[in-house]
Amino acid sequence: DVKVTQSSRYLVKRTGEKVFLECVQDMDHENMFWYRQDPGLGLRLIYFSYDVKMKEKGDIPEGYSVSREKKERFSLILESASTNQTSMYLCASSPRTGGSRRFSYEQYFGPGTRLTVT
Amino acid sequence: AQKITQTQPGMFVQEKEAVTLDCTYDTSDPSYGLFWYKQPSSGEMIFLIYQGSYDQQNATEGRYSLNFQKARKSANLVISASQLGDSAMYFCAMREGDNQGGKLIFGQGTELSVKP
Fold this sequence. Notes:
The complex is a heterodimer of chains A (118) and B (116).
Chain A: E1 4-6, E2 10-13, E3 19-25, E4 31-38, E5 42-49, E6 56-57, E7 64-70, E8 73-78, E9 87-94, E10 108-109, E11 113-117
Chain B: E1 4-5, E2 10-14, E3 19-21, E4 24-25, E5 32-39, E6 46-52, E7 60-61, E8 64-69, E9 74-79, E10 88-96, E11 105-106, E12 110-115
Parallel strand pairs in B: 2-12
Antiparallel strand pairs in B: 1-4, 3-9, 5-6, 5-10, 7-8, 8-9, 10-11, 10-12
């Protein structure tokens, strides 16, 4: 079974703190993603990575950075947490898309981290 | 403009009845894939079903089927014989073209409640 794990299910941080959210997958997937989920807005892509040390901005990268030093691990960093970053954060991974199945690979998700910034 | 639109924020269905969750999409790419995910209250996202833009037949997976109407750009999820465990958020998503990294674009979600 594919397994994607996230370091915390619940996290409470203070405004201005540096926050690290860790994600680890055990299926040797090339692609990894960070989303935030807010009611009425669905999932919005923050950053993604298609290889070690590679990263691409998603739709809402402002206020976030990422790190991918190893294939299995993708970290999301909030340099200075703010209250508007209170949200559910979901990590996902998928195999490299290509060949005849290049559209059909689903993303496998972690359990999510509910972050509250006070 | 929204690429994926789910117009039903909340839906109710009686147990054992069928229900249709709407999804419309917008793309100019001839090659794309459409996905449905389920998110129970526990939070994990569960992949349900996939439809490719060139697939001739509508996708089915057990009680789930995808009513794919390409000309109308709709990809509605049909759940037959609803069960109490089907109560969850449901998200429609699209992968366009050969985008690097295989990004998905998600809709806003529909919250389904199954009544006993």
